[in-house]
């Protein structure tokens, strides 16, 4: 533990300067307190090594107006079970408390003939409600049909080689068995589970950048997301490449090969899943003055618009990700990896497009989603986070490919709900209705007021102003 | 409340069938219990109207092996303050409990001369540690320079008009003042705060799709993210358009205008922020046997690779989003909206590319990030979620443009940390070191064992197998 920062924490000094204070002022302030300039330029040296209590005290005193309240608030969010809290603290560095995302559940998902209740961790008020509504809608119309289109993952060693291209090609071919052999200590367990390295190949990228090549690896990681496995394989590939390049006769007299980096890719177009719903267009619900077939036609148009207009496609796909991420988080997967891979896939044609498709042919409405999803149901947080374990149990302890299909169904359901609102009654009515309780909480409404307000807004349009106004009316008793 | 589902909940029936049971089996099972088929095909009719207790009981009994344990686990994650818990429950529908994301803090961010500690909500073990390390690194080299490049947001009314294009153009020009006037009840408060509608224009998209046009609106929403504001304006635009089109002389004799949908865009290339760090290349730390200038050169190469190779760009940008999303979530913003907008921006050239740039010129290393970010520091969850309020206080109660800059700095820091590892010692060493405690928790290591293991792996390479092996050794006392 760093002595300086402990001293800093134990004085009230840090409770005064607030962000907004410029570095120079801060220095002057420091000097006026006869602290050395050096202490100020490194005000939290060794922060990560402080105890959790000291970290909280430091942040509370240095950055908040009421340090004691801040400390109490952070503690109020701790779990009462100290061991459980410690487990969560140790997930990352510098943990102060637990950030709550609501964990909800959307029931009634009929996927390939099986009924699921899908756990979702998400803060947006309308997402779980929309998922549940879509699930119910399609439960009555045959449910979701899903299938996995591939489970192949990718990793690359990026390197420079300023020498002869053909010789490099011969070298890589010659060295392939050694690459695989050297990786065996890493791949052994994965091979036992039916996975492993599917193949490695040289990719010539010299047209994009002088001397730039890749060793492009393809991997099967079964129920693991596989990032650690793939990165470990790739770092071993790098070591083998360097060692062999220095001595291999194919490269005799050639300049040295220089490795830049080795890393998996979150772009996984061949680890992909498809989800689809379909029914006669006439079986779609008539809404907003439109018949079922008219609703079907407008849904198709909405997808066409998203397919040709990136400004719309981004929000269209964002809605899909509302559903996907909520399940990805609840099941302990990394939503940044999924997001990056999915959106790059949406842009693969050169234009950013819709991830869903829709058609009406021979009177049948079809609506489908295809997305790349690299997910894990073992490893990482999946066995560590008790609520993740529970979410996976609620889903029937799925394999990774099964989870891909559940997640895709959630994404498709979300898009269906959004488009259905958009092309019939508009998005705001439903959204604001879901947001009503949030507004009421913000205004400090009590339980009786909430009941009365919810009843009132069943037949009135919700807007922030309308809620403020009607609560005033209610409170004044007029 | 639905009677059927209450009955269902109060029997043990639902504790038996597990997911994996096909719909037909489920039906048979149902019939054998003399329940009507109808009850089974709608097994959770009215679920959202059940009490939280009943929802939990239903899910626990229907989907988990030990319902009582499930119920206890979900309760263990409830806050002890019932009112606070209710607040969180009401954020969304069907809330069962609170999903914990670790809330950590990365101190030492010097941004435009001010010192920040940045709250981050994230589950990935290495993100906060990497952010803190980069912050410290650049604190000693002049810190982050950031600036906002624009704050303009976008929304569109998508409509069809099969008639004369020029007449439509004249109609829209004529109707513009009415559009703005009709929206005044919605825009009044926003205008008072310095925001509002910046402009509306007709966009002809008929080359992409027959008869397809947009009313493209530009908005300034100040410290609000603005989704509700923009959507409300757009829905009013739709109503005005329809009303005026029916009677306006410019469209006399023309076919009717048909509105498909009205919705904001999460693609906000003109709501953009830039963050940069720079220092003499020789001032970069020598690492992994490389001098400062060599590290600089390799960092530039790493960015060049991400710029020309989508497989790399996706993971490169994913790392940036690790930093961005963690702050976005902690400050109560919608990370799906941010993700979609950022990745589409990365693909704007027709190829998915790096969001960061890097150069060495005249011996000076520069590293920068430009991203679109539509964020809010008022509205939504910002005032509702107590930890979001706290996160915003810790950041000095920033305006939305200030928050854009903080978030961009966090993203740039994250990318710097990732590239720095990748081009020097490789990513796995640091990542696995951070993941060590997770592995130890998974293996049920006690405190003494954890201390011993952490000490051991200071000088040894962490892998899952290595940890398992050394813990065995430790426990056997050999």
Name of the top-level CATH class of the largest domain in chain A: Alpha Beta
Query: What's the overall geometry of chain A?
Result: globular
What level of helicity do the residues of chain A show? 40-55%
Main pleated-sheet profile of chain A: 4 strands, antiparallel
Which homologous superfamily in CATH is the superfamily of the largest domain in chain A?
3-hydroxy-3-methylglutaryl-coenzyme A Reductase, Chain A, domain 2
Counting copies of identical and different chains, the oligomeric state is: homodimer
Number of domains of chain A: 5
Number of helices of chain A: 18
Helix and strand pattern of chain A: HHHHHHEEHEEHHEEHEEHHHEEHHHHH
Q: What is the strand tally of chain A? A: 10
What is the annotated CATH architecture of the largest domain in chain A?
A: Alpha-Beta Complex
């Amino acid at each position: 533990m760093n002595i300086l920062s402990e001293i800093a924490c134990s004085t009230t000094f840090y409770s005064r300067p607030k962000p907004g204070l410029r570095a120079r002022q801060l220095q002057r302030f420091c000097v006026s307190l006869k602290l050395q300039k050096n202490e100020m330029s490194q005000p939290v040296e060794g922060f990560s090594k402080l105890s959790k209590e000291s970290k909280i005290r430091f942040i509370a005193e240095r950055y908040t107006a009421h340090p004691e309240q801040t400390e109490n608030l952070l503690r109020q969010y701790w779990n009462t079970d100290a061991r459980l809290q410690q487990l969560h603290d140790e997930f990352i560095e510098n943990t102060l408390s637990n950030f709550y995302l609501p964990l909800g559940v959307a029931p009634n998902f009929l996927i390939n003939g099986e009924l699921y209740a899908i756990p979702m961790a998400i803060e947006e008020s309308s997402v779980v409600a929309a998922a549940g509504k879509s699930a119910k809608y399609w439960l009555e119309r045959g449910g979701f049909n899903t299938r996995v289109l591939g489970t192949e993952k990718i990793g690359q060693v990026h390197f420079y080689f300023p020498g002869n291209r053909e010789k490099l090609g011969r070298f890589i071919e010659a060295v392939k068995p050694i690459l695989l052999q050297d990786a065996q200590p890493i791949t052994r367990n994965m091979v036992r589970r039916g996975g492993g390295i599917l193949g490695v190949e040289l990719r010539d990228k010299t047209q994009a950048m002088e001397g730039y090549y890749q060793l492009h690896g393809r991997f099967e990681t079964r129920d693991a997301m596989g990032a650690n496995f793939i990165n470990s394989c790739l770092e071993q590939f790098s070591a083998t490449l360097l060692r062999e390049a220095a001595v291999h006769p194919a490269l005799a007299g050639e300049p040295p090969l220089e490795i830049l980096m080795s890393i998996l890719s979150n772009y996984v177009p061949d680890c992909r899943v498809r989800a689809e719903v379909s029914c006669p267009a006439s079986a779609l619900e008539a809404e907003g003055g439109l018949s079922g077939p008219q609703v079907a036609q407008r849904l198709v148009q909405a997808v066409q618009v998203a397919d040709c207009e990136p400004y719309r496609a981004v929000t269209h796909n964002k809605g899909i990700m509302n559903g996907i991420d909520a399940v990805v988080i609840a099941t302990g997967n990394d939503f940044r990896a999924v997001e990056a891979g999915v959106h790059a896939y949406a842009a693969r044609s050169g234009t950013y497009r819709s991830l869903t498709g829709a058609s009406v042919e021979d009177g049948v409405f079809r609506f489908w989603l295809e997305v790349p999803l690299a997910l894990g149901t073992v490893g990482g947080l999946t066995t560590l986070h008790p609520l993740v374990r529970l979410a996976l149990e609620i889903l029937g302890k799925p394999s990774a490919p099964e989870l891909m299909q559940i997640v895709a169904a959630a994404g498709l359901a979300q898009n269906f709900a959004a488009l259905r609102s958009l092309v019939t009654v508009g998005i705001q009515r439903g959204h604001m209705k879901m947001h009503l309780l949030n507004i009421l909480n913000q205004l400090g409404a009590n339980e009786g007021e909430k009941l009365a307000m919810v009843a009132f807004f069943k037949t009135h349009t919700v807007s922030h102003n309308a809620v403020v106004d009607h609560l005033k009316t209610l409170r004044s008793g007029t």
